[in-house]
Design a protein that fits this description.
This protein is α/β, with parallel strands linked by helices. It has twelve helices and 16 strands. It is about 35% helix and about 25% strand. The model has no long low-confidence stretch (mean pLDDT about 95).
Length: about 425
Amino acid sequence: MAAPAANLTINGDRLWDSLMEMARIGPGIAGGNNRQTLTDEDAEGRALFQRWCEAAGLSMGVDEMGNMFARRDGTDPDALPVYVGSHLDTQPTGGKYDGVLGVLGGLEIIRTLNDLNIKTRHPIVVTNWTNEEGTRFAPAMLASGVFAGVHDLDWAYGRTDAAGKRFGDELERIGWKGDEKVGARKMHAFFELHIEQGPILEAEGVDIGVVTHGQGLRWIECTVTGKESHTGSTPMHMRRNAGRGLARVTELVHEIAMKNQPNAVGAIGHVDVYPNSRNIIPGKVVFTVDMRTHILDKLNAMVAELMERAPKLCEEIGVGFEAQIVGQFDPPAFDEACVAAVRGAAERLGYSHKDIVSGAGHDACWINDVAPTAMVMCPCVDGLSHNEAEEISPDWAKAGADVLFHAVVETAEIVG
């Protein structure tokens, strides 16, 4: 299939203007966005996206999870569509680009094709996946997970937020519960553009990240059990301090991750200390270890080492240790042909690029289970994301969208 000519590029100013207009919906308190899934702000953002799609001549479909599919027809009625997109929902203190760049970058592909009167054999469908962030309704990537058959629809509808509101009820309330069966659509390929959410591309001065893999993860909930006692009157040698167990395991997690470099990480992010009083030695600490890498055998070995060594470290100081895996995601390897299309697009356009592993989860990770998939990444300032200070430059946005345009259009096959 023929690749687009190198002089075919998107309208970077129009893309940036669209990003800024979307950012006016659900403004945060510090320059970012609070457009959490299934809120009134989410509904308003969806409506704006729909208006833009209809203005570009696209037909809109919505499935039972609220996933939005804006279609530009191809010349071959039997050809499966090439899908492109990401998500419009944000964290409570989110940035203006996480997810949104991928959706509006997809829309910019259509606008550019219309400007140039270019037809493709395969249809192209721009997608907004519901609840990628998972901040209001856990887990993350919920709707793409239902689409890929990872989660059950009724289970997803039953997820509740902090106020006890059900996902299914809120989806219906905001008016974005469609009739289309989730997962019924078949894809020729799927591409997702995203900010890196890490510091590698900016630090190395690279324009484009060619994502070859996503990281797998294991969340291990650990409980260290000691004995509550008075901090002032309990002799040091008689203490069974659960807090010391937490400290030892924290260092162990760091050690395991460091010796499994490159592309392995580990940390403890959530901790509950009991009874959490200034003058009581902790009798119990419950915490979650997050371990990630893109190689499944390495990931499993990291977890196995934690499970073997942590109980012994705790036993040495007189406290107990128990653990269970409460979340897991095996690392996806993206489709080689789709990855090659991204890499070839970057080379053709003269953008510097490097292969990269995505450190965060994305809808593409689930869609990779049901269709050939790849991701494009652009830098973000200081690697900062999930933060209102998240920032990219217009040039970075254009470069990422240019590469996305070329990879998608090459895969969709230009006619004529």
